[in-house]
């Protein structure tokens, strides 16, 4: 049976029983880095379940979270044969791995992954607008709306990101994110139940605040 190279240790991981040997699967715990920015790009990865965060380090050591991924999303883009971003699981995740050479041999796989990359690119365009034009309060409202399932009017969101990770995603400081959450609470738009739980009281008002992106 084909083996998977563990990107963190260089060791091998045995694919789970019943897995297609041509599409090995990794089951990864939360908060594990599965790809490192600048490492040789050998694979493209596809999220089956769970959540993954892509990030880049700036020269001064600061981190920018560039993308949040869920089931169906794809990562492992490369520049000059090196990974462009690091990838870390936010929750326990199942990830399919594809050798990059497989895209040349399998046009159906290549077309499917390309469609996913196109969809993700559109989401990143919205994120660029958020970073460039929105206030801190609007950014946090946008972030919470993004986490809400379609059709959900109110309800409790379970946050898999820390406040610092949210700040890195929104281009803000930790203190600014904390103040924005407090202001949303003051306005009656959210209830802060725990550090990792936020109850949305009024989706309509949140959408108006975030510009309905």
Topology pattern, helix = H, strand = E: EEEEEEEEEEEEHHHEHHEEH
Query: How many domain modules?
Result: 2
Q: What spatial order of strands do you see in the largest sheet?
A: 3-12-5-8
Largest sheet: 4 strands, antiparallel
Task: Please state the oligomeric state of the protein chains shown.
Answer: single chain
Number of helices: 6
Structural class: alpha+beta
CATH architectural designation of the largest domain? Sandwich
Could you name the ranges where pLDDT drops below 50 across 5 or more consecutive residues? 1-21
Distance between the termini: 46 Å
Task: Return the average pLDDT rounded to an integer.
Answer: 85
Strand content: 25-35%
Q: At the first level of CATH, what is the class of the largest domain?
A: Mainly Beta
Domain HTH crp-type: 134-204
Pfam families: cNMP_binding (PF00027), HTH_Crp_2 (PF13545)
Protein name: CRP/FNR family transcriptional regulator
Domain Cyclic nucleotide-binding: 33-76
What features would you describe in this structure?
This protein is an alpha+beta fold and 213 residues long. Helix content is 34%, strand content 29%. It has helices at residues 100-105, 107-133, 136-147, 163-170, 174-186, 203-209, and strands at 4-5, 12-13, 25-28, 33-35, 43-49, 52-57, 63-69, 74-75, 78-79, 82-83, 86-89, 93-99, 155-158, 190-194, 197-200. Strands 3-12-5-8 form a four-stranded antiparallel sheet. A four-stranded antiparallel sheet has the order 4-11-6-7. Strands 13-15-14 form a three-stranded antiparallel sheet. The longest helix is centred in the middle third of the chain and has 27 residues, at 107-133. The radius of gyration is 18 Å and the shape is globular. Residues 1-21 have low confidence and may be disordered.
């Amino acid at each position: 049976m084909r083996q998977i190279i563990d990107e963190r240790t260089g060791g091998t991981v045995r694919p789970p029983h019943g897995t297609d040997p041509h599409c090995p699967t990794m089951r990864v715990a939360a908060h594990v880095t599965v790809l490192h920015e600048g490492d040789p790009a050998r694979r493209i990865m596809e999220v089956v379940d769970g959540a993954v965060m892509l990030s880049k380090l700036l020269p001064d050591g600061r981190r920018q979270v560039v993308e949040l991924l869920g089931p169906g999303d794809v990562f492992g883009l490369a520049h000059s044969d090196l990974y462009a971003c690091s990838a870390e699981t936010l929750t326990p995740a199942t990830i399919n791995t594809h050798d990059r050479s497989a895209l040349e041999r399998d046009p159906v796989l290549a077309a499917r992954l390309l469609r996913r990359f196109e969809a993700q690119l559109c989401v990143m365009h919205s994120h660029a607008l958020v970073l460039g034009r929105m206030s801190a309060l609007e950014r946090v409202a946008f972030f919470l709306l993004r986490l809400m399932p379609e059709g959900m009017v109110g309800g409790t969101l379970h946050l898999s990101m820390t406040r610092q990770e949210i700040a890195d995603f929104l281009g803000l400081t930790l203190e600014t994110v904390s103040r924005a959450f407090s202001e949303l609470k003051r306005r009656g738009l959210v209830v802060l139940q725990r550090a990792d739980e936020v109850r949305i009281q009024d989706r309509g008002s949140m959408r108006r605040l975030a510009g309905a992106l």
